[in-house]
Amino acid sequence: MKRLRFLFCCCIAAITLVGCSDINCPLTNGVYAKWSFYKADKPLQLSDTLDIYLKVNGRDTLLANRLFNISSIDLPMSYYNSSDTLTLEIKTASHHTYKDMIIVKKENVPHFNSPECGTWVEHYVSDIQLTHNNLDSISVLNRKVDNNEVENFRIYFK
Amino acid sequence: MKLKISAYILSSLFSLLPLYSWAQDGMAREAAENAVSRFTHLSFIQGMSLSVEVGTPIAHLIGGNTLGSEAALRFSIKNKYFPVAELGYAKYNGTNDETNIQYKTAAPYLRLGADINMLKDKTQNNRLFVGGRLAFSTYNFDVNGPDIKDPIWHNAHPLDYEGLSANRLWFEFVVGLEAEVFKNYHMGFNVRYKSKLKEKQPIEATPYYVPGFGSGGNSGFTLSYYLTFDLSKKIKAELPTRQ
Questions:
Q1: pLDDT tens digits, residue range B111-151?
Q2: CA-nearest residue of chain A to B142?
Q3: Which residues lie below 8 Å from residue A59, measured CB to CB, with a gap of 6+?
Q4: Does ipTM exceed 0.90?
Q5: Do B1 and A4 touch (CB under 8 A)?
């Protein structure tokens, strides 16, 4: 009888182990590219204000306004366009304005995670082109843009 | 989750039947164990048996999304070691109520491994075993769902993937009980801890349900309930003559 009770408890423990499951969805399904600012190989905290525009359906749309004292920013990417165009406008304290354009060419892949967590669109960057008014270069650290919050690009200012 | 728990509770209620038989036989045999064990010599090959997993079909009947079964061919070496080969087929077709995403797959899987009978008396027909398996499945799966809408650019495309291929190699650690309820007929259940070793998956999707492995990521527990038939069996015990 003792053995039967012990075996019954084992059975209940087994049911509990296999009956429970947890769903580990990411906090957000949003996918953002992480852009960091650098100058001469050192992280840069912008002392000038920065406006960022995104070209949406042919028109420049203000995405971020009067950013100040930042060293990085997370920006969305279009789900289905083959390239995105960003415009960075820096206004200095001496009232000079520098505009630079960044064109990011990419491949977009809708990614299924699970029926509970849903889907998101991941991007694989193939090429970046930029103007050089205030920008020196851009380096690609991770060409895959997903929801893992890793640094993707470094913008080197002049 | 409610459906998964009720399915496992019902299927494991059946497993209580062999437990009672096992406990009664165990108590009777314990009395003779000390006297017999020193004098028992078992022949090397004890026979082989065929098992059929019935927990999954039972769970499907009460509304689970998975359908399938598996058969296992098991050899008995001195009633202590049991090399085993398991071949199964599993099918999954489910739609999530909140996201309306449907996931569908069906494929066979293969497991090879061995169990060890942990009971002291190897001559009895009940077993408490622990074992391991190496398992593999290669499969295609489909994912369909509502349009994925871009909130900024306001365009949308449907989620529609068919025939994505993947495969998985995994390891299982098995603990189980088995009791003879009629002559040459056993019932038993086991709990398996499964852990992924290697996987190939497409970039478009993370496999949700893997045939033979189940759902739930890279590791997890499953409960199996099965019926076993002894195809051939001999337990030979030679008692030494006393002078």
A1: 999 999 998 887 777 889 999 999 999 999 999 999 999 98
A2: A112
A3: none
A4: no
A5: no
| Region class of A100: left (phi > 0), else alpha (psi between -120 and 50), else beta | beta
Q: First vs last Cα of chain A: how many Å apart?
A: 82
CA distance A145 to chain B (A): 13
CA angle, B225 then A16 then B9, to 5° = 45
Which of A136, A154, A46, A49 minimizes the C-alpha distance to A97? Answer: A49
* Surface of B (190-229) touching A: CB under 8 A: 191, 203-206, 208, 215-217, 220-223
Distance CA A120, CA A29 (A): 6
The structure's pTM equals 0.78
Chunk chain A into consecutive blocks of 10 residues (it has 158) and report each block's average pLDDT, rounded to whole numbers.
62 62 66 93 89 90 89 93 94 88 95 89 95 93 91 94
pLDDT in tens, B212-224: 999 878 899 999 9
- Which of B177, B124, B221 shows the shortest CA–CA distance to B14? B177
Whole-Å CA distances, A107 to A127, A152, B129, B191: 10, 15, 52, 44
Alpha carbon of A147: minimum distance to chain B alpha carbons (Å): 14
Question: Hey, what's the torsion of the CAs at B217, B200, B94, A14, to 10 degrees?
Answer: -40
Q: Determine the pLDDT at residue A136.
A: 93
Chain A residues close to B194, C-beta within 8 Å: none
What are the phi and psi torsion angles at B58 (to 5°)?
-65, -45
